[in-house]
Design brief:
Layout lengths: L1 E7 L2 H13 L2 E7 L5 H14 L4 E6 L5 H16 L7 E6 L2 H9 L3 E5 L5 E5 L5 E6 L4 H7 L11 H18 L7 H15 L10 H18 L4 H19 L12 H9 L7 E2 L5 E4 L3 H14 L4 E5 L4 E6 L4 H5 L5 E2 L3 E5 L8 H12 L20
Parallel strand pairs: 1-2, 1-3, 3-4, 4-7, 9-10
Antiparallel strand pairs: 5-6, 6-7, 8-9, 10-11, 11-13, 12-13
Length: 387
Amino acid sequence: MDVTQISHHDLDGYGACLVAGRLAEVKRVVHVPRYTDVGAVLQAEGARLAKAAAPELLLVTDLSLEADAVQFIKGFAAANLKRPEERRHRLVVLDHHTSSTEHLAAKGLTTTSTDEAGTLSVYDTGDPLIHVAIDTGRCATWMTFEHRHLISDRVLDAALEAHLGTLVAAIDAYDMWRKADPAFRQGVLVNEVLWESSSAYVPPGHPWHDRFVDELLMAVAAELQTGSPPAEIELRIPALRRSVVDGLLSQEPDDDRSLTMRARLYAALSRSPDLFRSLSDGTKLSFGLDGGVFQAVSDHIMERGDAERVINAARGGGMSFRSRNGTALEAARKFRGGGHADSAGGKLPNGSAFSLADAAAQIEPILCPPPPKEGDSPFAALKNWKS
C-alpha cells in the first residue's frame, strides 16, 4: 500500500516524517509551513485519492486541525465508505494541539477512548479504516513512534530502535517545552540543526530533501547517544552535513568536490526536473525556494540555455524574476512589480499560494494568456459579409 505523509514544516513535523520513514516506505511527503494552508492541501490530496484505483494510506502528522481540516476528515470518511471494500483507503491523523480537540468536537466527532493521563483522545469517524488521535501531552513525533502499529508491522532492529528513541525523546522534550527534562538541551541542538539545513541546502519539493534532513538528523542522534554535550556535537555538524551531501552527490558525474557543499548541490539541483515547471512560453517556475538557492540554481539554468527566464513564487505571495534577455522586468510589471531588466520582483494575484500547481494556475493565464478566439472579435460577423 502506497503511503503519503502530510506534516508540519517544523521540528516535530520532520521528526514524525523521519520515524514514519523508518516504519514504512513513504512514497511522498508534503510539508506544510502554514496552518492556514492545511485545508487546501488536504482537499487537493483528497481529490487525488478519490481517483486512485488502489487503496493507499494517508498519514497526517502535527497539523493543527482547524474547521476545514475536520470537514475534510468527515468528507473523507463518507466518500471512503462508498468505495468498494477492497479499494478503501486508510487515514491516520496524529496530532497534539489542544485546539484540534475543540474543532473536532464542534463538528460533532466524539471520543471513543482516552488514556489514563487524560491527554490522549481517539475519535470516531464512522469508518474503521480512519484513526484520529490527539494527545495534548506528547508531540507528534512521539505519537508516530509509539503508535507505529497504525502505520506498519515492521520490527526495528535494536540499534535503530535506540537511535530513534534518543531522537524522539529530544524532540518531544523540546516541542512540549519541558525545560527540566535532560533531553530538552538535546532538542535545542536538533532544532538548530534542522533550521540551518531545511531550506538552504536541498529545498522542500525535491526528492532529496527528506533524505537529506533524515540522514542528517539520524547522524545527530548517533552523536547524542555518545553523551557528548550539545556544544561539542555542534562543532561536528559541518562534517556530518558534508558526509550526507557527499552521499547524495555520489552518482553525479559532474560533481566538483573543490566547490562548497551548497555550490555543488545547486549545480545538481539545477538539472532536476522536480523543482521547476515549464510554462507555455518556456519560462521555468519554481515554488518556495530560498532566495539564495533560487539565485544560484536559476543562474545555472540560464547559463546552460535551458530557459531565458526563471520565476520563483513564494508561499507568502512574493515573486522573483530572473532572465538573461531583459524580460524579467517586463514580466514583473504584469504582477504589480518592478526592478531591473534581468532581476525583478512582483506579487501573486491571490496574495499567496500553497503549492507549485497553485502558483502556476495563478501565473500562467497572466504571463502567457491564450490568443483571443477569432469568434470573440466584434468584427467576426463581418468576416464573410459581402456587399
